[in-house]
């Protein structure tokens, strides 16, 4: 059966695209899928270092497109997780070396080799975005509960609709205590404003930084709330749409309970 | 948390997330109304062409604007009409 390409995108930078790509990719591979994660941020590659595979890069995606190597030579096999492969970006070129047509062609080959391909899209709406989206069958938009991030997500959602892709939303870096206090947009606010279907809620988690320090996929760190949330997102992508979306709750429930008894939200 | 409840009891302050949601709703609407200069120029060109089929107009003194007020936006097109064209007999 032919594989499927997902693009993970956000518009705004620094909201968690790369973390989401590596986590969801690792979770899908652990579930037995043959997965390729592709770093589309030509010139500013990062997926390799987040995954701890930076020392193993020989060839990159630009080399594959330009025919300087085979696809199998550029795909780095993760030794910790079976069936997980990284195709790194080139660090010396800029985004204009690839064209959307190149990506459509490469996408076809990727779908023959892998069950699931995750494209880690660069920030912005220029050529890098065009390239990352060109071959995508489906899209995940990631944003944080901040006005700047939500606004950029709206722009990206519009651009995806123009390409006949209906994206799903990951709300990342939720602070449950602030949400309970009414000082952070909750997921209903965000889905209401963006009119988009939700696929997962991810709590802010210090383990994200620890995992990137160690170059270890987040899902391999025990008790990581964000890691668990990404595993559930991966399962939903893998056809288990019935897995309920859990809303992150803050630790101290005592005052919250009293508050709700008194009629406060 | 206690101070929060006290604040809510006595201050009746609006939560910052509610403000954020409201601001976002308006920002997104306005973002979508924004039209690039090039589109505006093309629009002007097309409108002039259509109007010129029926009226003699002064092409140099026309104005095309998008006016935004608090809850509505309007496209206005101002042009002096010199004379009506005679109906073409086809």
Give the number of DSSP strands of chain A.
8
Query: What would the principal axes of the Cα set say about the shape of chain B?
Result: rod-shaped
Low-confidence parts of chain B, pLDDT < 50 over ≥5 residues? none
**Total separate domains of chain B:** 1
Strand order of the largest sheet of chain A: 3-4-2-5-1-6-7-8
Which strands sit side by side, in order, in the main sheet of chain B?
1-4
Low-confidence residue ranges of chain A = none
Q: Counting H and I runs of at least 4 residues, what is the number of helices of chain B? A: 3
Features:
heterodimer, A: 265 residues, B: alpha+beta, two-stranded antiparallel ribbon, 48% helix, 21% strand
Overview of this protein structure:
The complex is a heterodimer of chains A (265) and B (90). Chain A is built from 12 helices and 8 strands. Chain A has 265 residues and is of the alpha/beta class. An 8-stranded mixed sheet of chain A has the order 3-4-2-5-1-6-7-8, sandwiched between helices. In chain A, strand 3 and strand 4 form a beta hairpin. In chain A, helix 1 crosses helix 11 and helix 5 (100-113) packs parallel to helix 6. The model of chain A has no long low-confidence stretch (mean pLDDT 94). Chain B has 90 residues and is α+β, with helices and mostly antiparallel strands. Chain B has one domain (2-83). Chain B is built from 3 helices and 4 strands. In chain B, the strands form 2 sheets. Chain B has a two-stranded antiparallel ribbon with strand order 1-4. A two-stranded antiparallel ribbon of chain B has the order 2-3. The chains are: A alpha/beta (265), B alpha+beta (90). Chain A binds chain B through residues 145-147, 150-151, 154-155, 158, 179, 181-186, 189, 192-193, 252, 255-256, 258-259, 262, 264, and chain B through 1-2, 4-5, 8, 15-18, 20-21, 23-25, 27-28, 31-32.
